[in-house]
Design a protein that fits this description.
four-stranded parallel sheet; binds 6-O-phosphono-beta-D-fructofuranose; seven-stranded mixed sheet; alpha/beta; 11 helices
């Protein structure tokens, strides 16, 4: 039986490119004569029936915007059986026959829990998170823009670090993954990148910094992933100071949520559009319980269980690049 009406939501942390994905889902669905209902504030909006009918015009002029026009939320209620039952009621009352969810790890785990009870609602997911921490895709929506934002911010910090002979610990987002740290660190010539996937002791870090000083570097940048085991940039700076390191004046900068906003890059818009199209075509072709990804420029589908179990490996050769080039 062919599907006639789909629901669409964004959930979890917003990410630049989500709007491009929303636009692609709506326009592809309309192209195939499907009706699309936008669900506001993720699963919470689904529970509360906070819906909006979407047409071509409702996604006009959003491709270049950061954030998500559907807004987002992390719904505690959807974690409960009662919450999911209310969400199912909305779906049935509205005649929604399939869902596209755009989000990260938590979003897909929510879908999995829902599908365990309600097997008659097919769900496909598009990976939307700046963290790039999902298995089954080379890129998540938001990641490319976030690494460019982090790179630009660190470039600015380098200007002032050089003027004042300072060592900066710059903390970037990524939850428990180091993808943003590694890419932005390489792109800005950081002396070191500290991230959860590789262990660097404070002593090792001081050795690296001293070597740089001996090579007449007058400033240094250390990029720290927020999930690093030392516990963030402030703790790391304190630990380095406690060891008596005084070659530079030490400063800390936490980039924070600026990494989550901004105009999506060209590649972000293109990939988000590809994934949004693939999600609708997947539902039409009766796929369910899978995340759409892009691997080696090809669209691939990965079951939610696998996509959320572990993330792609950090490229070890890239980590070695930091040691040689930084
Ligand atoms: O998952 C995206 C992300 O930005 C992480 O990098 C970060 O740890 C977290 O979300 C921050 O979440 P919130 O915006 O809820 O503080």
């Amino acid at each position: 039986m062919s599907i006639k009406k789909i629901g669409l939501l964004t959930s979890g942390g917003d990410a630049p490119g989500m709007n491009a994905c929303i636009r692609a889902v709506v326009r592809t669905a309309l192209h195939h004569h499907l009706e699309v209902v936008g669900i506001k504030r993720g699963y919470q909006g689904l529970i509360e029936g906070d819906l909006i009918q979407m047409d071509t015009e409702s996604v006009s002029n959003i491709l270049q915007l950061g954030g998500t026009i559907l807004r987002s939320a992390r719904s505690d209620e959807f974690r409960t059986l009662e919450g999911r039952a209310r969400a199912y009621k909305t779906i049935k009352d509205q005649g929604i026959e399939g869902l596209v969810v755009i989000g990260g790890d938590g979003t897909f785990k929510g879908s999995l829990a829902f599908m365990e009870t309600y097997k008659d609602v097919p769900i496909l997911g598009c990976p939307g998170t700046i963290d790039n921490d999902l298995y089954g895709t080379d890129y998540t929506i938001g990641y490319d823009t976030a690494i460019n934002t982090a790179m630009n911010a660190i470039d600015n910090i380098k200007d002032t670090a050089n003027s004042h002979d300072r060592l900066f610990f710059v903390e970037v987002m990524g939850r428990d993954a180091g993808f943003i740290a590694l890419r932005s660190g390489i792109a800005t010539g950081a002396e070191a990148v500290l991230m959860p996937e590789s262990k660097t002791s404070v002593d090792q870090l001081i050795t690296i910094l001293k070597q740089g000083r001996a090579l007449k570097k007058n400033a240094s940048i250390v990029v720290v992933a927020e999930g690093d085991d030392v516990g963030g940039a402030f703790k790391l700076a304190d630990a380095v100071k406690e060891k008596g390191f005084s070659d530079y004046e030490i400063k800390v900068s936490i980039l924070g949520h600026i990494q989550r906003g901004g105009r999506p890059t060209c590649m972000e818009r293109v990939r988000a559009s590809q994934m949004g199209m693939a999600a609708v075509e997947g539902l039409i072709n009766q796929r369910k319980g899978e995340m759409i990804g892009i691997i080696h420029d090809e669209i691939v589908f990965t079951p939610f269980e696998q996509a959320t179990k572990h993330h792609s490996q950090i490229n070890k050769a890239m980590l070695d690049m930091v040691k040689i080039l930084g």
